[in-house]
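Now for a specimen:

…
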Amino acid sequence: MMYCEKSMKTVVFSHRGGHHKVIGGENNAQISRNGTRLAPLNTGWKPRSTLFPSLSTRKMPGVTVKDVNQQEFVRALAAFLKKSGKLKVPDWVDLVKLGKHKELAPSDENWFYIRAASTVRHLYLRGGAGVGSMTKIYGGRNRNGVCPSHYSVGSKNVARKVLQALELLKMIEKDPNGQVSSMLYLAVLET
């Protein structure tokens, strides 16, 4: 481990075993005790803060979805979707369970807007995903009483209706070269 301590005209190099002292010379070139010439010293010493500016002093070019807290983004987008009134909400939203692993329907009356906003965020981050992927994302633990719990996928009908509603808003679009069976979706955020 070598480090350099800088004082007036003397530079001391130290390492594990001992010290080697370099005594000042002419024209910023240092001459050691054994007469060898060393590289010139950098006299334009700058503090570390100017050499490596912190991230807070740099200007960032913009903010993406990855830079924002995901809960705040989903809530804000859900509020925007509800406020715009363009998202087509099915009639059965107050009666449905979101998967076989759920015991009750969602307690939040705006759950469809929140699910749509969350789906748009997932599609923006992941790229191609369809109904099957959404059921895996929104699945959960199925409790089997005294038997061990197992993973259970979410409702396919809910995932399909959310994707169809978002496609009508043109917030997502089908893959241009994908087949109908693959049902790939890509997020295109226009907001």
About this structure: Residues 111-126 form the longest helix (16 residues). The chain has two domains: 3-51, 68-187.
